Fold each of these.
Amino acid sequence: MKRYISSLMALCLMFALVLPVEAKEAESFRDVPTDFWAYEQINRCVQDGIVSGYSDGTFKPGNPVSYGAFSIMLARAFYSDELAAYSDQGTATGEAIMNKHGILSGTSRSSKSIGDPLPREDMAQCMYNVLVDKGAKTPSVSEYTQAMSSISDYNTISGNCCRGVLVCYTTGLLGGQSDGSFGPKNPMNRAQGCVVINRLRDYFQNNGGTTAPVTPPEQPETPVDPPEKPETPVTPPEAPEVTDGPLFKLQDGETAQQMMNRINASTTYREGYLTNGKPITEENIKELLAKFEETMPEGTTWDESSTFNYQSPSFGWNIACGAFGAAVSDALFDENAPVTRHQNFDQLKVGDYITLENYKTGYNHGVVVTSLTSKWSGCYDVCDGNRSGEVSWDSRGSYETFGNPDFTIWIYSRY
């Protein structure tokens, strides 16, 4: 009988060891009571394995979230299949996955360490980059720019993060503080991290994306007759009048913003056409760029001062080289021309705006492609602002950089 009981106890112990361990619930954290404002959101993230508590039984909801911690949270929530392929699933791995998808693009990570607290503006930019990377529905420029007036400290948001903050506000992923401000430089804490992760997950569930396979519709059993041709032919829209194009030049006393306000007021977006009324072709873009070079010649001052800041409807708030790149693109295609962001480097075209970031060295630059062939082997030609504080029309980029894993590169095309 003793041998039987011992065997039975051993069998029960074996089954107890293989039972799954339940996720820790938020109410078991002594610093997250059930009436805590983010209790439900924390509990959801804990149960789904996105975040965990500390060994002392606390969650520390007010502790700041670092760049690395938010990266691994995003990896667990939205890139779990990729994360599963790594044996090391720490913060460095999470950040590597984020860099692969450009999620940290536009943030201050290049000048900060992986353990530094994540400012709220960088958190918003990361969320926006996830939306773009996953192909989720996002508001139009006219929709999200309306949110500017509702953010009392909008002018304190870093230029690279303005678009991310506005999109997150417009979609309801973020809200302001009790005083109507956003607090862009304030660190995000662990409770807030759980809230925004869950809002982003819910947004994907409600608005979808392009990452899931789409099932093609079944073919009808009987052929459908084609619609009858209209009795009267449809007249195609008239081609716009051909002009010399906008005057891309800083006139006496003008800032970059004032110059672009003048240019944008003088042009009208017409699909398939440049701002001078000519069709969008490589030859016509080069011709218009050559005119820009005449009016804004090599060596023209264009530095990091506020004089050269530019808020573009399509690219958001930009400074220095970013402001020059956005200005050239808007002056070529019009401020309301649609923008496609991609990383298909085989589809690089003249007139495309490129951003390049190296998180190891802190290098961050924006350029506009002026030629796909260069006098320099393996290079393409570009123009850029803030090249030692000046405009340059004789710069170049290396095709080899596109394959460098240390760089995050995005192409913004308006073809």
Note: The CA atoms of residues 169 and 175 lie 6 Å apart.
Amino acid sequence: MISRGIHKDAIIDSEGICELPQTTVMEPGSVIHVGREGRIQLGERNIIHSNASIRIARGWLVTGDDVSFGPGCHIFEPHAGLEIGRDCQISSGVLIGGLNHGQMRPDLPMRRQPTESLPIRIEDDVWVGMGAIIHPGVTIGAGAVIGTGSVVTRSIPPNAVAWGSPCRVRRMRNGTGLFSSTTDGPIRLHLGCGSRYIPGFFHLDAQLFPHVDLVTDVAHLDAIPSATVDLIYASHLLEHFGRWEFRAALTEWRRVLKPGGRLRLAVPDFAACAKLYYEQGLADGLTGLIGLICGGQRDSHDFHKMIFDEPFLTRELQGLGFRQVRRWDWRATEHTEVDDYSQAYIPHLDKEDGTLMSLNLEAMR
């Protein structure tokens, strides 16, 4: 171990841009390889511990000040770029890989399969625990902690404590979960919010949008303590869970609701779909009934796996301990101005004379 400078047994092999300040520390056995199409720019007082390696034949790595790379840490080919903020700790044995390796060409040997590269961003003051693996395409928010051995396949929000394979948010660093004990007013969650923002709600989704407070699998609300939420709103989300999955999601949502808390659901109304099909078939094709039943299929999250009508969903909710199940009117809610699928009509947008194709039910815990 050394406290300053580059040890004689460290290796720097660079044909590209390699900018190391005089305050850089490289311990014995540490390696930097930069190819002709590569670039590395370290901030002040970065430490590369023994047997850590950074390989960038093509692509780039830029770090802030006071970043440490633990013993045996490996950064491999961030072709689309890797940005690490200041005051970050990348612990021993961490692997940050910049490439996804293809596998769909059986006519080619595996080593010749096409690869995909996505950018990685680690914001300020992040601690990545020993042996964690960070996949391409993720952002780890400022102040986040990633647990030992985690496999990070999706973005993690700021100040989250996350672990597991796949890595999921378990709590926030204030110790109370997604929101603090000083949050004013009712606590309302918008699950599977997508691109839609509702003022006064906490937004949770599997994908990162600018307004999303927590990127997570909404079937597992580990970051939220039990009996803390006043209202859950989930519009055209439940049908994305399979026939053996949706009950577990409802059970988890009930767990976080306060006694007397409200679950507000909107799902495609299979009874309305069946009636319309009987009357006119698939006259409006992909824009109408097919989308309601099968999903838009625009990405891997946009497939429907379940169908519901009012008697069936009412029985399921009651069987899980919900009570006072009833229909709700989108015109009389906090989100009446948000044009989401709870306001789905055929013909499209004909909210006066069209047929409402969404089954909107709410229930109390």
Note: Residues 88 and 116 are 26 Å apart (CA to CA).
Amino acid sequence: MRHLIAALSASIFAAPAFAALPVDGALNFQPAATRIAERAHEFHNVLLWVITFIVALVTVLLIWVMVRYNRAANKTPRRFSHNTTVEVIWTVVPALILVGIASLSFPNLYYQNVTPNLGEIAATSKSLLASGKTAQHLAYTKNNFPDAAEKGFVNIKVQGNQWNWTYSYPDITDDTGAAIEFVSNGIHKGRPGDKEIYEANTGRTDFDAQPVNLAVDYPMVVPAGRYVRYYIAAADVIHSFTIPSFSIKTDAVPGRLNEGWFLVEEPGVYYGQCSELCGIDHAYMPIEVRVVPQAQFDRWAELMKAGDFDAAATSVMNIAGLETQTKFASNN
């Protein structure tokens, strides 16, 4: 009964969630949902201006050379093998451009690929505030999240299979010590019986409303405003765990454990797909991440620990706004 009330509470206090998915005819990237993605987009925008300038300059030079030095305008060409000044310029200038690009790229790669030290983030934030360095603290918290660091990581083990994903939450265990673990299958397989199979397996009737080749039966669920650290491997062949709105792409390799992280502040539904050709059903191996307020995540975890996967999935079908967390908490 308690679990049923929890599921009903999620439905009552929830609203339609923001969904990050590809849109036909759209330009640019999907909206950034993480600081990792924001930094990647900022770097892309700078690089776009650099590339535009280079293309424009080269185009002007080509036109100038074609007009100034064509056979009609230059009937008696001079004979020389090289020009030292020109050669130095076209060697040094591109090298300096690459150094400038690298100076912007390397910090972003480090930020994305090195898992944050949460203890250090919390300590640095407190030190800056204690020293009255407000401006430095503001700049520091643009890329680091002290409040989330205080709460620690949400750890998830991701395993790629042919052709679905297995998610394990090692820190969330039931009374027997068993961790939450479940398999997430794409509901679209390109077959006539997809709808009937989905409805028979889940008891839901929302198949037609789900985004094609993106929706799953049991999504990954994480709390908003928390550092999520994921470990990833594969059971058979190489897969790739990719979520465009997060700007994360981590290979799942058999016999190897890779690691990544993200933090999403805005509750919603975020989609991705396997991005490594992994076999005949590669196109039907989507990733669905539902980011919910902490209280709703706790409710989902309780239902999962009780083994009621369908009620847990129902409890996050609609996602509560952050301001409604106290309503969920009041039902404890």
Note: DSSP finds ten helices and eleven strands in the chain.
